[in-house]
Task: inverse folding
């Protein structure tokens, strides 16, 4: 048997179809689409409540990507819960079910859209347009120029490793 692990530090048993489904599902879900949606939603609520762009970004993206996600990846979610403040423990334990309940139907719809070919067809249709690159740049510019990611550029510049 031959295996190639791209994006993963290990091999696991799968089929071509399952790999395609999980890859498309993951990209649209937690890996990129859902996480960007969650980041934006939390950031927008913080901004609407009067928090500064840098504070909202820090509490939404910076702490997640620079502190929490690496620790969760290395040690697991149970370890993270056991090794954080009581306020973080209670908040996470008391609210995670509500987020699960709200997002499960969206993830089920997404998986069905992957499985029935809608997502692959959309990617093919979009990528086949003669102006795809120009249209893509418009979408990326909207993200890049949104307040959350402009704040992110500023905050990333403050990291010690980015100081000149």
Result:
């Amino acid at each position: 048997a031959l295996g190639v692990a791209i994006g993963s530090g290990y091999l696991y048993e799968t089929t071509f179809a399952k790999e395609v489904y999980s890859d498309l599902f993951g990209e649209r879900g937690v890996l990129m689409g859902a996480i960007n949606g969650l980041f934006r939603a939390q950031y927008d609520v913080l901004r609407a409540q009067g928090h500064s762009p840098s504070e909202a970004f820090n509490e939404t993206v910076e702490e997640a990507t620079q502190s929490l996600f690496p620790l969760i990846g290395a040690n697991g979610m149970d370890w993270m819960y056991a090794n954080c403040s009581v306020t973080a423990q209670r908040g996470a334990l008391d609210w995670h079910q509500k987020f699960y309940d709200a997002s499960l139907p969206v993830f089920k719809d997404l998986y069905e859209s992957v499985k029935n070919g809608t997502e692959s067809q959309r990617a093919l249709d979009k990528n086949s347009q003669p102006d795809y690159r120009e249209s893509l740049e418009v979408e990326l510019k909207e993200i890049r120029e949104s307040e959350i990611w402009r704040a992110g550029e500023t905050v990333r510049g403050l990291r010690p490793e980015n100081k000149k």
Notes: The helical segments are 16-28, 33-48, 53-75, 77-82, 86-115, 118-128, 132-144, 147-158. DSSP finds eight helices and no strands in the chain.
